[in-house]
Amino acid sequence: MAVAIGRMLRRQHDVTVLTDGREALALIAAGERYDIIFCDLMMPNASGIEIHDSMAAMSRDQASKIVFMTGGAFTDASRQFLAQPGRIHIAKPFSAETIRSMVAERKG
Description:
6 helices, globular, Rossmann fold, alpha/beta
């Protein structure tokens, strides 16, 4: 999924593609900043909730840039998390146009 999104956006935007949330956290800790961060809600090594919470501890601004991608398999905790103000999410499958629109909206 991450590679496909990278391909969709690479022509018009600078894109960093990672498949491990820990790598993303390391980049934020090192001072990297992004206009938008797509993050899967359910991942093997860490949930999107865990990534968000860790990122928020380092940079609230960057945590606010996360758009969560969901496949519809929600737990009570994930429903409550996504229901909080400012938590943007898109459901899979989504179109390239949805991704491009999200980027355009968030970049301003």
